[in-house]
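Quick start: what a row looks like.
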Amino acid sequence: MASIVTPLRRSYRSLQWLAHERPVIFFSLLIGISGPVLAFTVPPIRRNYFGYVPPESIPTTYPLPQRPRRPVEGYDDE
């Protein structure tokens, strides 16, 4: 049983040492680990508890008018 817990105990001790001796590296690890965790947990929470509805998609084409096109006049296009 002790052999299963030993790697966890070692990693906990190393993280504890890192927090005391090199806090910049420790907190950068915490922020780096929390990013993917938040990426999977925040969207469902926003959708289920706060009623978030994604915005409409941005149009990719310009809508053309529903009338016949008039030829251009008076601009010396001839």
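That is the whole record. Residues 47 and 53 are 7 Å apart (CA to CA). The chain has a mean pLDDT of 86.
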